[in-house]
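[job 4417] fold queue: 2 targets
>>> target A
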Amino acid sequence: MISRQRLYGFAMGQILTRGLLVLLSLLLVCLLALALLLGTATGNRWILEQATPFIPGELTVGEWHGSLLSGITLNHIDYRYQELNIRLDQLSAELAPHALLKGWLELTSLSLGTLHVTLPPADDTPPQPDSLPDSLLLPFGIRIDALTVGTFQLNDTVLIRQLEADNLAAWRRFQIARLQTLTLAGANVQATAQGKLTAPFDVQGTASWALPLPESDTLQASHANGQLTLTGPLSQLQIHHQLSGPVKLQSQGQWLLKDGQWQIALQHHWPAQALPLTLPQPLALGKGELGTHGPLDALQLKGHTGLASGERKVAITLDSALIPGGITLHDLTVKDGEQTLGSRGQVLFSPLSWDLDLSGDLDTALLHPLLPGQLAIDGHSKGQWDGDRWSLSPSELSLRGDVRQQPLSVTSTVQSQTANGKQQLQLRSQGRWGDNWLQANGQVWPQWQLRSKLNLTRLEQLYPGLAGSVAGQIQLNGRYNDPALSGQLTVNNLSWQDWSLGQMQSRFSQLRLPQTSQPGSMSLTLNGHQLTQANTEHVGTFALSADGTWAEHQLTASARRDTVELNTRLQGGMNTAGNTWQGTLADTRLQHLQLGIWQQDTDSTLRLSAQSQSLSPFCLVQAPSRLCLQGNHAANTLEAQARLADLPLALINTLLGPTLSMEGTVDANLSVQGPLDNPKGQFALQSREANITINTADAPPPLEIKQLSLHGNLANQRVNSALTLTTALGNAHAQLEHGLGLDATLQGDVNFDLSSLAFVELFTADLREVKGSINGDFSLAGSLRQPIMNGAITLQNGQTLIPFLGVDIADVQVAIQGNPQGQLDIIGSAQMGSNTVALNGAVDPSQPNIPMQLTLSGDRLLAADRPDARILLTPDLTLTGSLEGLTLSGSLTIPEAEISPVEIPEGAITVSKDQVLVHQQADSTTPLPLAMDVTLTLGDKVHFNGFGLDAMLGGALQVEQKPQRPPQLNGELIILEGRYRAYGQNLAISDGQLIFQGPPENPGLDIRAIRKIPSEGVVAGVQLSGTLQEPNASLFSDPSMEQSQAMSYLLTGRPLESGSKSEGNKIAQALALYGLERGSGVTEKIGDKLGVDEISVGSDWESDDAALMLGKQLSERLYLTYAVGLFDAISTVILRYTLTRSLHLEARSSSEANSIDVIWEKELR
């Protein structure tokens, strides 16, 4: 029994052993099958094939490399479900199998290449209310240790590139330890996030980003950057964002699910801050805020801010809302002080369409300070754009108001039209500003067919400093990006600041830009005259004509001014690819009245571009003279030559006047080469057989210029030059070195000697017998603007005769001594008569404007020694100032003078004060302003004898003058004692004064001349008062009596009734001279005494000379007149016989002439 039990036990053991072996074998087979399925590519593909029927849509894999256990690489993965398409060019993954035992699907690495997702287009099904699920828990955990994505593209837009992430995990929670990527705009984003996958889905996350900005000369920033923080449940996510560059802006609010819609409620704030912009005037952003609230498809935007530039501040307000497919502007307003600009309307994005209104007020001084004014703006635009299809309803813009106190109105209308199946854009515009108007009508797109007219009659209304008128027509035709300009313009009296143009007419046709691709000839003509600057004419007439294409054209030009005329011709073409013009310069002709005609001998090649310029030899010839220029400039290097040969010095004879002439020739050459900032050069000038001739009867022999040469060089921004002049009168040598600028340092040596000063007589007729010698030996330092002379210039043994004054100035000695400080000390003396005049002072050319101070002093200097005048002067004068103005002050005394002026010829009269010489030119103003404050004193030996006056004079005058103003005299000249011969009598001057209180030409008079008649106990005289230009004369007597009696006593020493007939004539003539014609009683009494019918003062029909007229009617037709000239003292007898009322026969006889005239008179009414 035991045996049987053992056998059973043994059998059961074998069965269990075999069963265990079978189970182990089955397990091994299963593990082997699982290894084959997961560890081989064939097994992986089999698993994918078995799972594909359970996946909605269509999934294809192009290539499969590796396995799930060892790591797989898949290429060309394509998934399509309805209109959803997901394409992935490459996927690589490595699985951690041991994590499966813990319930995690862990990938140690996952790499995606280009992931392209194409979403189906949105349908018109009404959207369902948004909501959040209760849970997003995963059935197992997913962990990715390292994730990379090359590119993620949604539809046609690449959203991110180069995404990298570490330690991504999701199950009951999710976590992103690190994520870095580049966005569509190129921003570099780094983020972390974590949260729950069950309601309410609490999330915490941070992100920082940096966006590189494009390089710009205006924007002073290279990056924009910010930080984002997210916290809270997903249905009320708190958002905080801080923008830290290039401007500062803070945003805070919520992303929330409300009323079944996702909405945002964000408020953006920014402080006042300067904008990082490079502008002529700094621009600052004002403090502001912007609120964004509501659903994403109906977002409300409201905010305000400002801009500030200098003292100007602009306020900006916005009130708008997003609408499906676009935005509605409730109000967009820009306000600057009293001016505003606002816009309202609607804009849709797909397709683009708009309906906008524009209104506001514009202060035109913002455009330019010289254009003050206010304009009202009103406009409207409506249209749409959908690819190649677009339309524009009539859109208008109008401006109305006043600019520069002139009414301005502009109205423009733009609208689209369709002609022959093609769309066009039409423009109608017209504007008026003051008396100026402009209008334009036509097509502006896709072809230009625009016609315009303008008539700007008063340009001074448009801009200060501008004047004249412009009128004409302009047409614009051709393709939109290659238009052609045609038309004609007329300009009259155009001026700008101190430039002016009398008239110009222009005509042009088919003018295009150099880059044009259109064939066809262009033409341009200009004709004008009177181009002036500051009343100086630069061009009298000019003409320009051009025609051809940019590739081949010709231009002729001419200009004339007074005696100068220039003509030339250019022919060539423009290489638009290299922006180079190349051609020939030919037929140049320069004509000058004195310099003759200079003509170009051969054509010259000219090449011009922005980088280089060149000119082949260009020569103007007037046989035997020749002037040539040539050169080129490229790569900042210059090479140029100029040469002048056989130029006759006789060409300048017309400029020297008739008394001087020059002979001989001069040669010169100049060359410059090297970089522009440091060129090298050489120059030379040499005269040949030169001399100066004086063309007068008693002229000295011609002055030979034995040598006149100038040569030098340029190197290292310094000029070295040497001048040599050798003549029979003396020699001069100068060696100079200086920089190119006026303030560059100067150094050099100058020496000269003139053994004769006879050449001075060549330049003035007021000096004769000029003698003496001048020597100079000095060095130069300082600069060209402020040279410093160290050395001396001396004038020795000078002598000259001044024929006009009759004086001889002898022993003239002058020394000018320079010192290292730059001041020139001047010491001089001369003999005038028996006394010496002294000159002392200093001039400082090293100082700005060259200050100076000179004094002139002497005692009893012989200033004039002529038969009619011998005058001694005692000066004590000081001249101070600079090149900005001089002041003469001090005193001038005339201790002794004997003046006996030549009598004025009989019949000479003063010119009427109201006479105007039409063609007389005003005296040119002194270029150097001079002020004067000098006291003139007459001594007790000043005697005047002339014009009937014999008197000793005295008194003092203060002479004052301000720059550019006439002199003013204050003081009086006194007749100390004297006599005045008038009316045939030698009258004693009891009192006499000339009173000056302003202009010197019209002093006040207070002169009293008397005659005493002791036998009659009568004193009679003449009192002169008033002014020199309007004197008043009156007779007086003691005792008092009638004027005729006073005149009788003054002339005859007896009463009127005691005189003879000849004495009565004398009294009548004296009364006429005295001007008593206004008193008829006097002439009647004298007429009765003489027995004549008429006494008058006047002139006859042939002459304007005043005369005393005595008339007697001999018969009814015969009248006898005796006339005595008041100024020429000529007696004339006139006999007139009346033939008819208008016809007379007149005979006259005098000591000068005899005549018989027939006179016809007609009164014109």
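>>> target B
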Amino acid sequence: MYKLMKRIYLLLSLLLCSLLCMSQVSTSQNYISTRTYTSPDHSGCREQVVYFDGLGRSSQMVDCGITPDGKDLVSLQEYDDQGRKLRTWLPAKSLGNGNYMTISSLQSGASSLAGGDAHPYLQTTYEASPLNRPVAQHGVGEAWAEHPVSYQYITRDPRSFSWLYYKIPSGNFLGVCTTDEDGNPTYEFKDGLGRTILAGRMDGSDPYFVYYEYDNHDDLVNVYPPFVTYPKMDEPEGPFATQSSYSYRYDFLHRCVYKKLPECDVIYYIYDHGDHQVLSQDGEQRVRGEWAFSLSDELNRPVLTGICHNSYYYDDFPLCETDVKARRDDTGTAFHGYILENIPMTDPVVYTVNYYDDYSFIGKHGVPTSLNYVTPPSGYGICYTESSKGLLTGTVTARMDATGVTGYDYAAFYYDERGRIIQSRTTNHMGGIEEEYVAYNFTGEPLKRQHAHTATGKSTQTEVCMYEYDHAGRLLKTKHKLDTNDEVTLVENTYDDLGRIKSSKRHGNSALTTDYTYNVRSWIKTLATDTLFTQTLHYNDSYGGSTPYYNGNISGMSWKAAGDTGMHGYRFSYDGLSRLTAAGYLWNGAPSANYNTSYTYNRQSNLTSLRRNGRTGASFYGLIDDLTFTLDGNWLTRVDDAATSSAYNDGFEFKDAVKQDNEYTYDKNGNMTKDLNKNITDIQYNCLNSPSKVTFKDGSTITYTYALNGAKLRTVHTIGNTTTTTDYCGNVIYENGVQKLLLTDAGHVTLSDKKYHYYLQDHQGNNRVVVDQTGQKEEVNHYYPFGGTFASAEKSIQPYKYNGKEIDTKNGLNWYDYGARQYDAAIGRWHAVDPMAEMYYSWSPYVYCVNSPTNYVDPTGCFSTKFGAWLYKLFNGGDQILKDKGGEYFVSTQVEHSGDEIGATVNRRFDWNGRNTGRNLAVEKQWDVYIADTKFQELCATHGMEYVRTENQSDAVAGMLQPAMQTIIPVPFIKSGNALINAVRGQKNVTTPVIRFGGNANQVYHTFRHTDALGLDRSLVQSMIRTHFETVSSQVVVGRPFNQVIRIGGRNIQYTAFKLSDGTFNIGRIHEIL
């Protein structure tokens, strides 16, 4: 009886806690209430209520108690008399604890929260036809009421346009012309099969179009960028593929076996019987007789990469009848514990190894026993014996310098019962260990992280980062403790009612508080840090005579840093492609030629001329660069400087050291191998196309060591008789063997005195002012639009500058290291082909940030961030491409579409997002207020891209540890040339259902707990269910469970699917039925 009463009391307690968490919804309305509990006793939760009208359409969405002061945010969706979405409103603030709001109250509240703006909604106008296609979208904001995005649907033959002089095949075409808020049109033409044939933009009357060519099997075979010569209207057809075009060839299963990128030799691909891309060979590998291999295990998980020297011909399809696998077997010493099946290897060199499921690899194959799990410090996550099933448990990563592979680093990863990394142990190239321990709260946000760095003969550096969140999961504080020193608060954030960062205070010092303001579209307007640094951005308003822009381009900006006697500024001009054409310098808002710049481009958007003014003396200014670029295709071959003045104090400028043809040369992968204007006579590259050795005319050298996951480990500068060695061990930086810096999320710590230094950044993450922990100025940087710094007499104390990237100035190198590529701000170009060049066919693969450096950033060197966000969205799902305070774009979730045409996207107001906060494990929870991102829509339309959504990798924690990278870009994308083509060519409407296996880590655990108990691998279960569900997803009805039974691992497994109101699917309980 006692036990019975005890259970009843427990149930009543849980019920009471749930009731305390529950909002008082309006029961007179149809609604769905969703609660996400934030504590194990159900005493706290985050609740969202969606109200539906009588026709089952969502009309209001309430995020209960979500604002910093605990009030509701309510958004409104209005429909026209045809049931189409008419107005999507920004949110209003409510006191109602989940209650339904009257329409008039919600509308007035939205206007009030938007600063009194009379147009706090996006409104869509449709054509008068059953197709429900939009003809105009008026974006959020009263200022945009007369500047809509318009859509015109074209049925006439595109060959009838006077500006179209390209020969395209005859047939039926459907075109869409999307005109942005500033009147810039973007065209896309599709044929009767839905394939994109022609896409591009207009700069005035000048067309910039990409032509797509297909074979008889509907495979894309050639892509011709705007400036490539291909058939004109009055010319016969023929083979027109050139050095600067894209070409693809396929096997009998439509897999890409041949890929030619601009300015690169052909890449070959070889597949096995199971459609695995096993081997590839680029132009440089072909010279060396190498093939790159990438092998999977029995569960199709990537396990081995490296090179071999086999003799294969790609068009012989040598592996098409065999299934190539790598199987775990401790006798496989040549391949670190794997044995290869059905493929011989000649002189193999292993680059990376992945281990899964268990830790039996430790102590074998060179993996040290120091990677064994250790009892964590008190308060950190604990490893459970079966928690690693189906997870990545260890890696082997080669280190490579100019001579080849020099050794390996090993890592082991340990997980808690929810599959979250709670401990990692990694060897480093300095003979030590990187140890990390993590503790999480109930909802999965990291609460603290301890990182210990050791190296042979060096002192141990132990840092602890602690994170505090508010009731909505927004990051409030990041605290930091180094060794036995006092704990400091690196960053303390406050938020406004819409969840945007309102202020950010560093080191607990009020003088180091940055305040932010935004316009109605949540574009950052001002940021100010006391008297140390202020910045104001102008978009649709004029500054210093600039032309207002409504499409998101920044029309002008002003800034002032510590020590300045006046206000710096720029007014920007763009062409019809949003390429920057001029930046007029302003002083106190008035024109001044001191730092003017101007630019011209060719049809592929390569720079053809650049003029740059600057400081020529202590108080004199003039023209320091008057550059003319000579190009061969996209290759820069020569630069001539007509300017006669030099920059003051040997400051930033182009150095025209020689006058000859071929001042720059390239290898077969498109990497620059010579820059005679910098006196560089040779540049060698590794297999990642990262530089491994730079040789100067005077005999000086710079050598690099990389881990083959892309991390830079060491740089050795031998300049004359002086050698300087810089080592990078995670966030600890050594110089000549002495611990120098420890990088933090807000700046760095000088390890000689354990003092904190902070970076005050602008909207793009450029380090403008460096201060110490007391607020004293230590360094000031002013930047040209493409990243060069104004000449100054001030001393530089640290190397992280533009976009927060490290610049190497030794021996006049002046390269910014972005990770994937090196950038030269003096000429505004990369030195290597963009690894993601196929994401934007109309642009040169050497172009920096699509020549709009005022509006874009490129955090990795792979692509401008909007394209990077698009790639993430492509593989992980999501909604809007939004920009945060650092200028970085990221993807929000939950998208709603109106119509099927490109650009016809009606985005909802806001939702949760996790974005990487740097090396930190804390995932900064941002609120994303609606932005009608028409620039991104134009880019998609221009390049034949469509909005594609696949599985949302909900388990990936941004910024976590290396294994999480595999959840961002799936291995098939990395491996297969065909996958990328299918992703971006946009000739078909992709309708892959968005499937989630649980909404958070707790739900994921309960989803799989039955199959886990049966010993079935999670990745196998997911793959089998996904494959099956894609064939039956059309049968699912919103609000009704959908049960299916399939055969997995010899068992009858039933899964339950639910279709949500946003069109996505959730897979719930998975269990065996007998």
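[job 4417] complete. Note on B: Confidence is low (pLDDT under 50) at residues 1-20, 233-239, 866-992, 999-1003.
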